[in-house]
């Protein structure tokens, strides 16, 4: 025979009482429901998990130099960049190259932010505009011109003009 103490069985009534206490506690608490379309909560100022934006310098030139690092860093292959040599007489960006074509496919984008981290000129940033809905597949691919514009304010449907 061994001298080890025998395990004491837990009383089944104690387990049932604990379970019922949890049920009653959850049943009597107030609901924490957000009324999203009616009451839009502004995200914190440093929350950047929304739509992408291409930035410009103060003089109006684009910050994007067409290096394609953001496209290489994207794990979902959602970014298409086509770089071209910059015209010295009429420059688009301050560097030797610029992005001739820039597209982000939001059907593929997983909002990881690796593209923003890879950008050497801080040309690409994430905004706080998280409201994105698209009526067709073509609308979900944003072009360079759309990405250069600031996103619409919260509470407005994407693609509609305020009038």
Structure description:
By secondary structure, the chain is of the alpha+beta class. Helix content is 20%, strand content 15%. It is elongated. The chain is built from four helices and five strands; from the N terminus they run H-E-H-E-E-H-E-E-H. The strands form two sheets. Strands 2-3-5 form a three-stranded antiparallel β-sheet. Strands 1-4 form a two-stranded antiparallel sheet. The chain has a domain of 96 residues: Alpha-Beta Plaits. The C terminus is likely disordered.
Helical run tally: 4
> How many β-strand runs?
5
Please give the share of residues in helix: 10-25%
Q: What's the gyration radius in Å? A: 26 Å
CA(first)-CA(last) distance:
89 Å
Oligomerization: single chain
Produce the secondary structure layout:
Blueprint: H1 12-28, E1 52-54, H2 69-73, E2 79-85, E3 97-105, H3 114-118, E4 124-126, E5 141-142, H4 144-148
Antiparallel strand pairs: 1-4, 2-3, 3-5
State the main characteristics.
163 residues, alpha+beta, two-stranded antiparallel ribbon, 5 strands, 20% helix
